[in-house]
Amino acid sequence: MIRVLLADDEAMVRAGVRAILASGGGSEVVAEAGDGREAVELARAHRPDVALLDIRMPRLDGLTAAEEIVRNIPGTAVAMLTTFSEQAYVARALTAGATGFLLKSGDPYELMAGVRAVAEGAAFLSPKVARYVVEDLGGGAGGGRLARQEHARARVARLSPREREVLGLVGAGLSNPEIAARLHLVEGTVKAYVSAVLERLEVRNRVRAAIVAYEAGLIDGDGDGGSA
Predict the structure, then answer these.
(1) What confidence category does residue 86 fall into, taking pLDDT thresholds of 50, 70 and 90?
(2) pLDDT for 57-68, tens place per residue?
(3) Residues 52, 5 contacting (CB under 8 angstroms)
(4) From the DSSP assignment, how many helices (H) and strands (E) are in the chain?
(5) Strands (E), the chain
């Protein structure tokens, strides 16, 4: 079972999310918080697999809470539970180390899949958020699309052929166990490859690596793995 900490200042939202996760049978909410400060304290006490955080909360907002959880509780992955109108906060959440972005208006199956993916070490973005990340955050200060592609390809050129293959699968949203099965490797070897890829690309997390993979042409617009 995936152990989840759920933080949202609206009790009805928490009840709905809790019911959705329970219906899937693969995860359970082990603690609930009504504000960001309580979320950090409960994360420290329960050490959940995933902290699912609302962005706008009293006492301590979800973004600051995410930063504290990522910094102090490395075994807990962080996913943000947002409304699409809060897309401006995605960049800060990425910097904080969040690897999941789930919409409150999204499909229940999307919520369950997102929690499972983040718990397994993969990145998961709701489709609307993913488009924003790739098109807007992927641009950064690097100029036009062609310039970004050239820069991304130069970064990917630092990788070995196997590392590029792993990066493409990370970009396609596969978890470490799924990559291991696809490449016929043991999971520990995949973890080592992913760590090496992040270090060589000089990125903090899998979401940023996925952006590089997309810009470099390792995956297509549908998220399917491609060749360099």
Answers:
(1) low
(2) 999 999 999 999
(3) yes
(4) 11, 6
(5) 2-7, 27-33, 50-54, 77-82, 100-103, 124-125
